[in-house]
Amino acid sequence: MKHSDAASTSAPLEAFQPIVRQSVNEAVYQALRNKLMHGEYRAGQVLGIQYLADALGTSTMPVREALRRLVAQQGLEPLPNGTTRVPLITKACLSDIRRARVLIEGTVTEWAGPLLTSSVLDQLEQLAQEITQERRTPKGVASSLEKNRIFHFTIYAAAQSPVMLAMIESLWLQSGAYLRETRELLHNEDSSDQLHESTVNALRAGNFAQARQYIQEDVSWIFDRLDLTD
Question: pLDDT, tens digit, for every residue of 34-63?
Fold first, then answer.
């Protein structure tokens, strides 16, 4: 692929952090996965292999491997010319993703509850407070999205269910491009941020069913502000 494929994506080169002291393949995958989850690539956007390699300071081989993994997770789709793009999905598909995320993420939160330590709950509480503060301004959206991902996946990972965690990752990858723009448009609207702190409080109290409900409400909030009706 020619270097000119850089024009196929709008993310600036400096948006990536240098990769050091990690498996290059895994680091490239994690960088691209997180950007997709955060919605930093728009739906339908073609991702050029050479551009991504230049942006990350790697050869094309780890980029190809990362893209292959993301296609398998349904976060990207292959095109006939050998490139990949962020999938275009229907309102019906988004509605189905919403339903699946509410069910799975709520369930995993309830499973995780008894396994979360006090120190982890302290970390979650700090993250919840920082997310609320940063989402109050447009400039804080990107940082808040990353902290939101860490908040949720810290809980989900504690459930010790690799199968369910893989499902959640796939669902986040598929919906990221659609939810990011909505989140930015609604940064001044009363949000679901208080649900993060309520989740932590419920987990501390051992009320895991209530924590499940708060997570389900949190997941639903942004989807419910999309027009998913045909």
Answer: 999 988 898 999 999 998 999 999 999 999
